[in-house]
Amino acid sequence: MLCLQSTLSQPQQMIMADMEDIFLPSPSDLLVNLDESMELVTGLLQALPGMFTGNHQEAALGPALAAGRELLGSIGGRISVFQCTRPNTGAGSLKNREEPADKGTVKEFGALQPASDFYKQTSVDASRAQIGIDLFCFSGEYSDLATLSNMPRYSAGTTYYYPGFNKATYPAMTCVRSRACLRARMCPSPLYSYMQTYTPLPRT
Fold first, then answer.
1. Contact 132, 157 (CB under 8 A)
2. Where does the chain have alpha helices with state H?
């Protein structure tokens, strides 16, 4: 978790060591006014690509969603999930179900179904608190989108899928569409949750 209060000179990182019993270390400091903290937010986004370079990181998406639900539960809002790998630790961890030998066979359809109802139930609980979840999946490997897409499907959100993502392959298109979604101030109707898959434009 990151504290971006405008009174700080740099973002303050808080590490949640216990993934079973989620709590907010400083609830009043985790939501900030964007205009007041714009300099800190901009600096964080610029530094973020290099913060974990070369380190193998575990992806604990389930606990992160639980923390977001705890943070926004009393006021509602939206959670934007940026996922580039399969969740592999903590609640909601997923196994690799991709079997190359099954491609083109009946067994392949099993991998197109959700592996569990964890993310569906998480989204239903979030929706009851007026929380929507958008998923941005930037993946160059198997990420079990069949399961993860339940997050936006049951919370009036949207799945943005960039298969085989590479920043050189998806130049301005990715930035424009992602920025437009993040800037949107109106929540979509629960009746219209959908998936958008973007194919890279041919190079000229």
1. yes
2. 38-51, 61-72, 118-128, 145-148, 150-153, 172-183
What residue ranges do the domains of the chain occupy?
1-41, 59-204
pTM: 0.76
**Of 19-23, 81-85, 141-145, 195-199, minimum mean pLDDT range:** 195-199
Distances 135 to 78, 81, 153 between C-alpha atoms, Å:
11, 5, 10
Pick the CATH number of 59-204 from 3.40.50.410, 3.60.21.10, 2.60.120.10, 3.30.870.10: 3.40.50.410
pLDDT exceeds cutoff 70 at 96: yes
